[in-house]
């Protein structure tokens, strides 16, 4: 019996190591999201337990991709990072993920919820296309990017909630577009400090606002009008998503908690008279956790 016990010991230790590695990978994903996507972190905490870990993996995956553009000095380096994630996704669906914490947790989420590969691929592909340092030609191009990244993430979140509902998908599409547009606006001060402007060219031309106006942080009316028009489009998408709220499966509502910080930002932007460089827009909303809890309790979006 002693011999048999000794023979069993290595496998028991191996299982312990696997559990330890799995726990570390899950913690890594949660911490990455907390540090780099704080609003997404708070929203995910309010999800049902059976989907929470999977959505942290999805959001960590999204963070990894979103950081590529600003963390590499050359496009070729960014393309290499994107290729790593393309290869990783292939291996995940072959049930052979690499030993990367986000890949390991994403593989568990894919297996647990049978996540649609197309949405994950779409996120990578559009993040890769966005490595080019050029402005969006028009608001439609920005909306397409938002649909392929933010809306795709919401479709995957719905899958973790086991929601298959055409109205929920429709809402996710519009909410994702609103989020993508607002994310573009929120990044304006950061990009301007690096002498970069990615706002839709057609709207800038309409109001006679040049890239240099944004780079020097202009607070002239024409610059504010550009921001107003873009923010209005985000607001329209949110309102459209809410217009058929009664038709959406109630199980989908937790996936749409992100509307709370989006509304909060638009409200602060209006209060700042659409001055995108106003200091108040760079500060976290201290009431956001409470607002999220209230919306979750009310079961709406």
Strand-helix topology:
Layout: H1 2-36, H2 38-45, H3 49-71, H4 75-93, H5 101-113, H6 117-129, H7 139-160, H8 166-186, H9 188-193, H10 201-206, H11 211-215, H12 221-243, H13 259-271, H14 288-298
Helix pairs in contact: 1-2, 1-3, 1-5, 2-3, 3-4, 3-5, 3-7, 4-5, 4-6, 6-7, 7-8, 8-12, 8-13, 12-13
Named CATH topology of the largest domain: Farnesyl Diphosphate Synthase
Query: Which structural class fits the helix and strand makeup?
Result: mainly alpha
Largest sheet: none
- Number-wise, the strands total 0
Estimate the strand proportion: under 5%
Total tally of structural domains: 2
SSE arrangement, N to C: HHHHHHHHHHHHHH
Instruction: Assign an overall shape.
Output: globular
So, CATH architecture of the largest domain? Orthogonal Bundle
What is the rounded Rg?
A: 21 Å
Q: Number of helical runs?
A: 14
Mean pLDDT: 93
Helix amount: over 70%
Protein name: NADH dehydrogenase (ubiquinone) complex I, assembly factor 6
Function: Involved in the assembly of mitochondrial NADH:ubiquinone oxidoreductase complex (complex I) at early stages. May play a role in the biogenesis of complex I subunit MT-ND1.
Family: Belongs to the NDUFAF6 family.
Subcellular location: Mitochondrion inner membrane
């Amino acid at each position: 019996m002693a011999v048999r016990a000794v023979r069993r010991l290595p496998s028991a230790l191996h299982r312990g190591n696997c559990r330890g590695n799995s726990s570390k990978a899950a913690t890594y994903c949660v911490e990455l999201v907390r540090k780099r996507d704080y609003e997404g972190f708070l929203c995910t905490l309010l999800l049902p337990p059976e989907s929470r870990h999977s959505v942290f993996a999805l959001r960590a995956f999204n963070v990894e991709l979103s950081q590529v553009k600003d963390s590499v000095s050359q496009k070729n380096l960014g393309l290499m990072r994107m290729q790593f994630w393309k290869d990783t996704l292939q291996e995940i669906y072959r049930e052979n993920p690499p030993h990367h914490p986000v890949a390991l947790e994403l593989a568990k989420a894919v297996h647990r919820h049978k996540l649609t590969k197309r949405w994950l691929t779409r996120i990578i592909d559009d993040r890769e296309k966005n490595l080019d340092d050029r402005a969006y030609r028009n608001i439609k191009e920005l909306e397409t990017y938002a649909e392929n990244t933010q809306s795709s993430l919401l479709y995957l979140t719905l899958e973790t909630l086991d929601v298959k509902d055409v109205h929920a998908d429709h809402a996710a599409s519009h909410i994702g577009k609103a989020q993508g547009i607002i994310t573009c606006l929120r990044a304006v001060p950061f990009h301007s400090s690096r002498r970069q402007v990615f706002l839709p060219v057609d709207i800038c031309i309409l109001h006679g606002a040049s890239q240099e106006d944004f780079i020097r942080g202009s607070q002239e009316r024409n610059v504010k009008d550009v921001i107003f028009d873009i923010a209005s489009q985000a607001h329209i998408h949110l309102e459209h998503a809410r217009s058929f709220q009664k038709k959406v499966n109630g199980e989908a509502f937790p996936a749409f908690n992100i509307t709370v910080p989006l509304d909060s930002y638009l409200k602060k932007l209006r209060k700042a008279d659409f001055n995108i460089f106003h200091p108040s827009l760079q500060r976290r909303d201290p009431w956001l956790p409470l607002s999220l809890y209230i919306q979750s309790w009310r079961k709406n979006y």
